[in-house]
Protein: Aldehyde dehydrogenase
Amino acid sequence: MTAESQAVAERGHSAPDELSRKLAVLRDAYEAERYPDIEVRKDRLQRLWSALDTHARRLCEALNSDFGHRSPKQSYFTDIATTGKSIRLTRKGLARWMKPEKRKVDFPFSVLGASARVEYQPLGVVGILSPWNVPVNLTLTPLAGVLGAGNRAMIKPSEHTPATSQVMVELIASAFSDDEVTTVTGGADIGQRFSALAFDHLVFTGGTAIARHIMRAAADNLTPLTLELGGKSPVLVGEDADLNLAAKRTVFGKVFNAGQVCLAPDYVLVHERQREALVSAIQAEIQATLPEGAMSDDYVAVINERQSDRIKAYLDEARAAGARVWSADAGQGRRIPITLIVDPPEDLRVCHEEIFGPLLVVRSYAQFAQALDYINARPRPLALYYFGNNATQRRQVIQDTVSGGVTINDVVMHYTFDDLPFGGVGPSGMGAYHGFDGFRQFSHARAVYHQTRFDLGRIIRPPYGRAFELFSRHVMTRG
Structure:
């Protein structure tokens, strides 16, 4: 964080009682308009897109300030362009998504005029707690789903990117009234109060440890949650894989935001006969991608000293344990180079904690089944990446492991397609959004049944007789 960002952080935060007041304003507005029509929703999404486009340059400058160095080109793509795409596609999909879904009605009701459908109803007021690593995208992309579903929203952006958060506050204020979307700012104390508010749904993106506190705070109100967390996402390289391709695409996943992404490859599993060839390919790709090393303009600094110290501690522990550690350059300050740690002792912290930074563990296996067992012995990750063309192995990866998502012969890419749900499972999260999945996540799927005018209900009302017995048997065997 630069001095400029620190100055922004030290300016006024939201007062604790302001949170309840803002929620009450949103709640009253929801009660007055429980089901916004499609034109209202499309207008809100268009305003969001336009405000993002207007503030794009300032957001990229703020991200550079908050990180200490972050390529404006990367920021535009990661936080502006992909977010704008999600907003546009949500707006485009509303006419189809909002239509009631016809559902099947059992015989004999089906032939006597009964009907059933599902209608998607707004939940009400949704809270969004967003992270520091990709702060614009991971705030406004879920917001697009929230608004598309017809809800109001209150956002608390991360205190670790204060300059960016301030621009987002201004962006939201320029596009929405306080009874549509509002923001609050502050540190962990405000975040704790925020998560204890009586929202109709709460979205949190961040670490698993904090998510546990969020769940406890939300429990008193039985607030439903969407948790987008992380974990140690593995890269599994099959024996028939193109090693140069695997190296190129895995390195991209680490260079991208210096590995400070919940979907970043955390460790690589490669057959022991191919380990050295893959390590050499990764080393060559790192040097080709960042010829100036960690000081390249296209690279990203680690967000702050706390995170930098944590990552450097992993390296110190690995070196002290005699692990093989390689980087192309020494880096400087928080500009930590992409660093390989090859077959380290299993008891090191880097083997158990989510790295969330520019380190990559490479570990060898003797049998493919051994690699699957290694993955399954660990908490379920947000993503799993498989390189190879063996159809049997691909099917094993998909059927015999559990992760939030899978990308075959690449990394991260499943996140980029809005028609695929993005979410974790178990320790890597719960719930999913993007596209229709986001619309559905932030809606209540309301069952609507129209009964036939014929009084078939008399069959199941006391006093019970032979007709009831026959009907019960029909339900058991043919219903």
Remarks:
- The longest strand covers residues 115-122.
- The first helix runs from residue 3 to 10.
- Residues 7-12 have pLDDT under 50 and may be disordered.
- The domain at 3-229+432-444 is CATH 3.40.605.10 (Aldehyde Dehydrogenase; Chain A, domain 1).
